[in-house]
């Protein structure tokens, strides 16, 4: 599968998609663009980035670049590489919860029609539980799910408890890598460990596909709580080191400083559920950290503790 299919999915959702020499880019917020394919680690020329920002009046760009790059925040991709994923390789916590989950739910591939009809409640509940907010209307959800229904490489998966949709995830095959997208769950089923069962079964099944070399469970997020990635790493994934570079438009960059960052964080205290503010705070934090000397950067916790004893301990 190629990036143009992924681009078409975004276009069907009303998201602007642009192409430059090094990558594709989709709009992630007001005048902010994320590079894709997500697992690519790129080194765009500065002239390419400047032309992009001036031509399309982009406020901010975000992309993954090598660890040896001169600028960029020390970050990671949550990945599983290889084809030998098995419960026996996981820690005690994961093994126990996966087995419990598989006893209480059934994991299966479902149609995007079913996901469109039943899934919005899960998405809203998950965002609320994580303290995040997006304008998730039924139309937004229909565009997201049904926009993928007839595109090659997209699949929808579900964990059901007594026939009721308890958790779901969308996967997409990008070249030899599977992307996990929009995993969600109703909180009433969290004690049944349906997310563990779903994550395990989907990972194991997609890795059995011929030619697949790994799964990307997501980028180091701008605004998600740390628990989101803790779950992934307990499930056998690991943080693959990269630098995430955030670049602001030349006319805006002089105002993107520590004072502005502190002001945005102060505003967040009074408006905690504003997704645009949360993304902007994250973009500015990554940008400022990325400008610091590499030895002085704040290393993300999950990158410092890539493999830790906590894998085998009860939470």
Outline the structure in words.
There is one protein chain. With 315 residues, the chain is of the alpha+beta class. The protein has two domains: 3-76 and 241-304, no CATH class; 83-212, Aminopeptidase (3-Layer(aba) Sandwich), CATH 3.40.630. The chain is built from eleven helices and eleven strands. Strands 1-2-3-4-11-5-10-9-8-7-6 form an eleven-stranded mixed beta sheet, with helices on both faces. It starts with a helix and ends in an 11-residue tail after the last helix.
Query: Any idea what the radius of gyration is?
Result: 19 Å
pLDDT < 50 runs, ≥5 residues: 307-315
User: Order of strands across the biggest sheet?
Assistant: 1-2-3-4-11-5-10-9-8-7-6
Q: Give the helices and strands as they follow along the chain.
A: HEEEHEEHEHHHEEEHEHEHHH
> Termini separation (Å)?
38 Å
> How can the largest sheet be summarized?
11 strands, mixed
How confident is the prediction overall: mean pLDDT? 91
Strand residues, percent = 25-35%
Whole-number tally of structural domains: 2
Strand runs, count: 11
Q: Supply the number of helical segments.
A: 11
* Shape estimate: globular
């Amino acid at each position: 599968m190629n990036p143009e299919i992924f681009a078409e999915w975004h276009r069907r959702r009303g998201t602007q998609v642009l192409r430059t020499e090094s990558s594709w880019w989709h709009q992630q917020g007001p005048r902010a663009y994320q590079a894709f394919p997500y697992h690519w680690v790129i080194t765009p020329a500065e002239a390419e980035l400047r032309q992009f920002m001036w031509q399309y009046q982009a406020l901010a760009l975000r992309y993954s670049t090598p660890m040896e790059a001169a600028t960029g925040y020390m970050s990671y991709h949550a990945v599983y590489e290889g084809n030998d994923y098995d419960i026996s390789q996981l820690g005690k916590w994961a093994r126990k919860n996966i087995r419990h989950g598989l006893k209480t739910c059934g994991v299966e591939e479902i149609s995007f029609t079913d996901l469109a009809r039943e899934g919005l409640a899960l998405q809203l509940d998950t965002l609320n539980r994580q303290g995040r907010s997006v304008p998730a209307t039924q139309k937004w959800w229909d565009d997201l799910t049904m926009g993928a229904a007839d595109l090659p490489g997209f699949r929808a998966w579900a964990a059901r408890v007594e026939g009721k949709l308890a958790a779901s995830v969308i996967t997409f095959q990008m070249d030899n890598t599977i992307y996990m997208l929009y995993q969600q769950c109703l909180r009433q089923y969290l004690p049944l460990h349906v997310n563990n069962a779903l994550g395990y079964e989907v990972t194991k099944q997609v890795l059995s596909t011929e030619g697949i070399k790994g799964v990307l469970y997501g980028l180091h997020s701008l605004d998600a709580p740390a628990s989101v990635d803790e779950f992934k790493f307990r499930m056998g994934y690991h943080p693959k080191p990269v630098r995430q570079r955030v670049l602001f438009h030349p006319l805006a960059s002089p105002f993107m400083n520590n004072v502005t960052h502190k002001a945005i964080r102060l505003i967040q205290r009074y408006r905690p559920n504003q997704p645009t503010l949360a993304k902007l705070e994250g973009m500015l934090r990554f940008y400022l950290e990325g400008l610091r000397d590499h030895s002085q950067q704040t290393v993300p916790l999950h990158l410092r503790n890539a493999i830790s004893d906590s894998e085998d301990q009860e939470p």
